UniProtKB/TrEMBL annotation:
Location within or outside the cell: Cell membrane
Catalysed reaction, written as an equation: a quinol + 2 Fe(III)-[cytochrome c](out) = a quinone + 2 Fe(II)-[cytochrome c](out) + 2 H(+)(out)
Subunit structure: The cytochrome bc1 complex is composed of a cytochrome b (QcrB), the Rieske iron-sulfur protein (QcrA) and a diheme cytochrome c (QcrC) subunit.
UniProt keyword annotation of Ribosomal protein present: no
Organism: Streptomyces xinghaiensis
GO cellular component annotations of the record: plasma membrane
GO molecular function, one term: quinol-cytochrome-c reductase activity
Residue ranges occupied by any Cytochrome c domain in the UniProt entry: 47-126, 142-220
Catalytic EC class: translocase
Name of the protein: Cytochrome bc1 complex cytochrome c subunit
Keywords tagged on the record: Cell membrane, Electron transport, Heme, Iron, Membrane, Metal-binding, Repeat, Respiratory chain, Signal, Translocase, Transmembrane, Transmembrane helix, Transport
Binding site for heme c 1: C60, C63, H64
Post-translational modification as stated in the protein's UniProt record: Binds 2 heme c groups covalently per subunit.
Signal peptide as annotated in the record: 1-30
Length: 269
């Protein structure tokens, strides 16, 4: 009985062993798996911000200020987010060649890697919309009919019914959407460049944006057709009605006059 009592384990022995095993497991996990990856990600992000700041200082600071605070020649970039940088620089609108009412689209100056670095730097100045993932703007399986309805309700007033663009006030204009990439269409809705209003995901969900993108691709794609005949600039029913009244009714009147003249001649002879 004494030997059995001597070999009996302490009541807390199992708990001590369990705590020791958990401590060892947690230490090994923290030391090897996530720490290296997290540190690598942090290092890469810091390097991108550093490189982006150098690019920004060279090409953007003269108008937007050394810290992105803005000047009399350019607005503040604090809080615009990486998506705004990717759109403006990725479409060649920035840097501007000269001040004007609106920055026109032109050939891109920077590579995509440099644009990503500048976007990382601007994002570090304040929270803003991030560059969307490919899944966000992929129109595969989107509802084109719903996209057309959304586009006519929210976009056609400026871009016209088929996205061909149009003039606005004070020298501004809505650009032609033909040939614009899906990513830049999404970013434009997300950030509201130039005179365009912002359509955040809280008011225009991601799926609605995909539907709109699918509609724009359909009406401006290579396989797009105009089942009604002439597109008439894509301005919608007003233009079509004016064409019908001006040319259609005019042609009918001309035919009626011609028939009446022929009838009168026939009676005289």
């Amino acid at each position: 009985m004494k030997k059995l009592s001597a070999r009996r384990r302490h009541p807390l022995a199992a708990l001590v062993v369990l705590l020791f095993a958990l401590a060892v497991t947690g230490g090994l996990y923290a030391a090897f798996a996530p720490a290296d990856k997290a540190q690598a990600d942090t290092t890469a992000q810091s390097l991108a911000i550093k490189e982006g700041k150098q690019l920004y200082t060279t090409g953007c600071a003269s108008c937007h200020g050394t810290g992105g605070q803005g000047t009399s020649d350019g607005p503040s970039l604090v809080g615009v987010g990486a998506a705004a940088v990717d759109f403006q620089v990725g479409t060649g609108r920035m840097p501007m060649q000269q001040p004007g009412a609106q920055a026109p689209k032109k050939p891109v100056v920077y590579s995509q890697a440099e644009i990503d670095q500048m976007a990382a730097y601007i994002a570090s100045l304040g929270p803003g919309p991030a560059v969307p993932a490919k899944e966000a703007y992929d129109p595969e399986g989107a509802d084109i009919a719903k996209g057309g309805e959304l586009f006519r309700t929210n976009c056609a007033q400026c871009h016209n019914f088929t996205g061909r663009g149009g003039a606005l006030t004070e020298g501004k204009y809505a650009p032609n959407l033909e040939g614009v990439s899906n990513k830049h269409l999404y970013e434009a809705m997300l950030t509201g460049p130039q005179a365009m209003p912002v359509f955040p995901d809280s008011t225009t969900p991601e799926q609605d944006k995909r539907d709109i993108i699918a509609y724009v691709n359909t009406v401006n794609g290579e396989d797009s057709a105009n089942p009604g005949g002439l597109e008439l600039g894509g301005f919608g029913p007003v233009t079509e009605g004016l064409f019908a009244w001006t040319f259609g009714l005019g042609a009918m009147i001309a035919v009626a006059i011609w028939v009446a003249a022929r009838t009168a001649k026939a009676r005289k002879s």
